[in-house]
Design brief:
The protein has one domain (8-136): Chondroitinase Ac, Chain A, domain 3 (Sandwich). Helices cover 0% and strands 60% of the residues. It has no helices and 13 strands.
């Protein structure tokens, strides 16, 4: 897996990939149409942020590369890579409990707040992507 040098792209399986944590300067791409939605991404070594139709979807601090990001009714899944451990925030259903899985191992249960935000950390080694799944319980 590698960074998404074009900042945001649609994949043949219907998912999206975004983010370039190796950039020194902020990269931004707006009005990217995919599946009837408009996406906006901002990314560089300090942060990666994704919005859909003007609403928050994903953020990592520091920046990350996210491949095959798939949103379903009961959660999200994606491949994640960065140069160091990251703090991720996702927008999901409000006041709902989710199981967090990294490479098929459950690493926690977290309940979203009243605005639907869920935050968690993922330990990473540069060049070694991990599979992240967040599934409603």
């Amino acid at each position: 897996m590698s960074v998404v040098t074009e900042l945001l792209r649609g994949e043949s399986d219907g998912t999206i990939s975004f983010g370039d944590y190796t950039r020194e300067q902020k990269g931004k791409l707006e009005d990217f149409e995919h599946g009837g939605d408009l996406y906006k991404v901002k990314t560089y070594y300090e942060i990666t942020k994704l919005e859909r139709n003007g609403l928050f979807v994903y953020e990592s601090v520091p920046g990350s590369a996210v491949n095959h990001f798939l949103e379903k009714e009961n959660g999200v899944s994606f491949l994640l890579e960065s140069s160091q451990d990251v703090q991720i925030t996702l927008e999901l259903a409000e006041s709902t409990e989710y199981g967090i899985f990294v490479d098929s191992e459950q690493v926690g249960l977290v309940e979203t707040n009243r605005s639907g935000k869920l935050s968690f950390s993922v330990e990473l080694e540069e060049g070694k992507p991990v599979q992240v799944k967040v599934v409603e319980r």
